[in-house]
Give the backbone structure.
Amino acid sequence: MKKRIIVITLAVAAVFAAALLINTNLSHDPNYMIKHSAVRLTEGKGQNVTYDCGHFIFLADQRLPVFVFIPSEDGEYVFDITDISTETDDVLIMSVVDRKFSDLITANNFSDEEGSVSNSISDKTFLQKNHKYYIFTDASSNSGRIHKGSFRINVNRSAEDIRPAEITTEEKVRLRIRTGEQESVLFVPEESGYYRFNTSIVSKNASTGFSSVTDVTSADGDQTISVTDGICFLEAGTEYYVQVSIDEIRGNSAKVDVKCRRIEASYFDEDGITELDHPAMIDYTADSSGLILFRSESDGNPKVAVYDSEGMPLRSDDDSGEDFGGSSKDFAVVIDAEKGQTYHIFVYGKFKKCTVFVSPYTDDPVEDESSE
């Protein structure tokens, strides 16, 4: 009897520990369960899928699976769904997303405005070696909420050896990007330092939308670079893939220009002041530990992003400068500095003249004014 109680107690404790572990992982990563329940998809080896979903959960036979694919090489890959057969006139949908769940492919088997469907889906995209990509499938129908059918899914390396267009600090690249998806450009910096990628939509039908850099990763997959407003620290000679996306446009796609430039550094003078007439990176080496205030006085609307010595973003600000002598459009940002560490303060935005001040921070704005 005692042994049975001990076994039951241990079993309950194990279940509780497992539930606690899952809950902890879910709180840090809402996609934890998807990532750990995805079915591995292997290049050149298709998988047959049968689904019967839309019932109450205890009556469902099989739901549409989520697949995960890890390329062995950089390159363009083709995702195919073939032999689509549905008992409920389903439109089948395929989505391929990256590790941040940003869409690379969204496609379906809907054929025309008359409502007919085909028995296959095919699309391709550029993927990076050793990165995880997730393939979602879903069924949609006007005939009801129950979906039954089958299909075969496969992924293969494209016959063409395609790499993203390469961008330099002298020449821009023009991409055509589909709504809700992203495209890559390749960049190899000649010098280590800070670089800024600017994107702009040039299609007239998409003037209301916006574009942005969503990710920067090294071509070998070993580095994911933190990006703030398109700004990041890159190492000389390393190949980087820069992902660009668009959103809220009219139409299915838009042309986007991507530009890159290296940000040259300037320095504060001995009084902790520097004057700018264009966006610039200002290097600051702390001569003591403690809270440091960076603020602006300008004739425009400057913004600031502060990085540590390794290029990691620390703080950013736009319009907090009014309490520190600037206007409501000036910035003010405080960091906890360490003696001897160099910090990089990137000042950008719209202005003709911007004076940037650095001083020890206190809770009294009047005392901070004395640093001028």
